[in-house]
Amino acid sequence: MFPINNLTMQQDYFGIELSGDICLALPLESLVKVTQLKQKNLCFIPGMAPFWLGVMNYQGSLVWVLDTNHFLNLIPEKNPYRKTLTAVIVKHKIDKKQRRVALIANKIQGILNSNNFQSLGVNSPLPSQYQSLIQETILGNRGAIDILDLKKFFQLIKTATSLKALA
To answer: DSSP characters for 75-123?
Structure first.
């Protein structure tokens, strides 16, 4: 075990589960809302990278919806075309503007209390091209959880138009 990184551990997180038992932690202050999203309420945008499911209306604004499993090259769950999706809307300030994106999750872990963490350094099972998006890997009550660096994540999705651009 590595010593706990005090900068990372001073905040609480919101945990989501993806395919392949991958768990991501999002800074709790970045969480906007968790919602159930019907696929029929998504507006598909032609010509976009396949990991973008489209956009949704959230409080009168358009929010991009990201197929998180597809984006991270994870093996999809058994029923990728379910009618209702769990969307976790997160925000981050980039280029002096507040940006929001909805991440599709397989399951919700909920609030992760920072007092229960042990640091594993960066020990993520994600594919190598995504390792830079992980701030730290922690050991929680349910196993290893990767803390997503939202600044790097938003920078990447801002410019990524295809999976080839991410390699």
So the answer is: PPPS-TT-SEEEEEEEEEEETTEEEEEEEEESEEEEEE-GGG-EE-SS-
Q: What is the dihedral of CA 115, 121, 125, 128, to 10 degrees?
A: 140
Cα-Cα-Cα-Cα dihedral sign, residues 157, 114, 8, 73: negative
Domain spans, the chain: 6-157
The β-bridge partners of 56 are 63
How much is the pTM?
0.85
In the CATH hierarchy, which fold is given to the domain comprising 6-157? Answer: OB fold (Dihydrolipoamide Acetyltransferase, E2P) (2.40.50)
d(CA 150, CA 48): 22
Query: How confident is the model over 51-101, as pLDDT tens digits?
Result: 999 999 999 999 999 999 999 988 776 665 668 899 999 999 988 889 999
For residues 37 and 87, is the Cβ–Cβ distance under 8 A?
yes
CA distances in angstroms from 138 to 13, 15, 36, 66, 157, listed in the order given: 11, 12, 27, 24, 24
Q: Which residues of 87-108 are buried (b: 16+ CB within 10 A; e: fewer)?
A: bbbbbbeeeeeebbbbbbbbee
